[in-house]
Amino acid sequence: MSVLIPSSRRRSSSELYDRIDLGHGDRSAKRSAYWTMLVLSGVIATAGVIADSTATVIGAMIVAPLSTPILAVGLGIVSGRLSLVGRSLLYVAASVAAVVAIGYLVALVLPNPTNVLANSQVTGRVSPTLTDLAAAVATGFAGAIAIARRDVGDVLPGVAIAISLVPPLGVVGVCLGSGEPGLALGALILFASNTVVLIIAAVVVLMAAGYARESAEPPAAAWRGRAYTALAVAFLAVGIPMTLNTLTSFWAGQVGSLAETWLGGTAQAEVGDVTWHGHGLVVEVRSPQGLPDLAELQDAVNGALPTDPPVTVVHTVGERITE
């Protein structure tokens, strides 16, 4: 770890507490700045989601201070300061409620929330996969190392963009306000996975960097063991649905390929979206002609997928009109 965090560049324990513990030092100023920036980032994120503006959402990621109490949870576990863990978790919970409420209230006044639910800022966050989890792991370690070193603070805005904490919460609020709790749950899983991974990364990095040895309150082994168990359970809780999302996405891609093969002899036929509806798959096909026997596609799907999902084809007659 001395290679990643050289002693000459390592923050002292007091510097680390001053940076990420909202109850350390000038508490009033820290809390005022935290809540001001959190609310503003929530408004910016929600506006970006509604407008389907990637640039606006990135702005919200940079402004958002939510990683501060999340990293403080990791520091509290390493140092054995149960009060810091509890206080920081309360900040996280209150922050989640605040940003979700902003998204919810905005969704209530939208004239047509259905259009918002179909944009890329929403669809890209309601079905997280293992790819998102892998990116969160790498980003979490980058953030934890950056917070422990004095000389790499410039990477923190990039970490904030990559790990994405506030935008998924804005999506949760918008989906709840639009009457789509299932979509809201998907976005909440994305936020939860990013949060859990960031805490785990902070614990690993700060422990390896020796901050536990400097703690004035060394934790009992049982307490630290319970904290590790809780993190492992939380990681599994978010990892399982993300694994399922990865599998269903992979299978949908397979069915799309099988549908293209099925349509091989049909001129001008195109496969559109392949989506899951319950336990079945819906394949959108555009073709000015009739389609082959659906039983052939169903047999191919049954042979490729382990669950034998029923396949429904939505046939749209697409005609090319030229002058």
Automatic annotation (TrEMBL):
InterPro entries: DUF389. Signal peptide: none annotated. Pfam families: DUF389. The keyword Acyltransferase does not apply. The chain crosses the membrane at residues 33-51, 57-77, 89-110, 130-148, 155-179, 185-209, 230-252. Keywords: Membrane, Transmembrane, Transmembrane helix. This is DUF389 domain-containing protein.
